[in-house]
Amino acid sequence: MLQPKAYVFDAFGTLFDTTSVLARCEETFPGQGPELTALWRSKQLEYSWLRCLMGRYEDFWTLTRDGLTFACHALHLRIDQDRLDHLLEGYFTLEPFPDTAVLTRLGDIPRAILSNGSPTMLNAVVSNSGLTSRFQHVLSVDAVKSYKPSPDAYRIATDCLGLEAKDIVFVSSNGWDVAGAASFGFRACWLNRQNAPLEMLGQKPEAIIRTLGDLVP
Ligand code: LAC
Fold it and tell me: Contact at 8 Å (CB) between 61 and 118?
């Protein structure tokens, strides 16, 4: 892959493992951990897109709470405020994927995070994982009250870096995010952590990698 003028990374699922909440889910609701974790994540994302379409933005922390509440209701799990808070707090301490260690080997090329996460969530998870020094910018879509894959959300990165989209490599493990980034004009790089099929959204990434280590020249 030709070296870009900057790298922009998605956060959840790409740098931070959203399944880190599985242990808390399983401990709180024995036997239901995997299903709750998966439905929670899928509702959290679905609500971001639906609220975007409805023009009713709420920050990602709210959607994370609402997604969890819905998932508990759908699975007939009794959730009270204490359990809700305990599970939600798991998002502040998501594990970074081990391959984030290679980020220091990308040379002097500026690196940023652009995430749907709220500023509070992002600051917490980045600092708790010890990755703060790896990024020059941690950008939240909250600045424009919209969500990826809307172009307004991706524009936050080009505006902040003062670069054109074609000069930026955007890395995400989320297929829908990669499609949105490619459509916006970024050099989209799909970190296919799940060995998933390509999303059928009419957009192809410039590169498909299996680990962040594949970015190192
Ligand atoms: C992010 C999530 C949605 O933007 O993957 O970090």
Answer: yes
Q: How far is the CA of 116 from the centre of ligand 1 (A)?
A: 5
Q: Residue 151 and residue 54: Cα distance in Å, rounded?
A: 16
Which residues on neighbouring strands pair with residue 95, listed in sequence order? 17
* 213: confidence class by pLDDT, cuts 50, 70, 90: very high
Q: Is 16 helix (H, G, I), strand (E, B) or coil?
A: strand
Instruction: Give the model confidence (pLDDT) of 36-57 as tens digits.
Output: 999 999 999 999 999 999 999 9
- Tell me the whole-structure pTM to 2 decimals: 0.96
Is residue 12 within 8 Å of 177, Cβ to Cβ?
no
Confidence of residue 1 (pLDDT cuts 50, 70, 90): low
Atom of ligand 1 nearest to the CA of 148: 4
Q: Quick check: 172 and 9 in contact, CB under 8 A?
A: yes
Residue 217 has pLDDT above 90, yes or no: no
Task: State the CB neighbour count (10 A cutoff) for residue 132.
Answer: 11
Tokens 């909440």, residue?
Answer: 21
E strand or H helix that includes residue 151? helix 151-161
pLDDT tens digits, 140-159: 999 999 999 999 999 999 99
What residues are annotated to the active site? Answer: 10
- C-alpha 180 – ligand 1 centre gap (Å): 12
Tell me if 12 CB under 6 Å of ligand 1.
Answer: yes
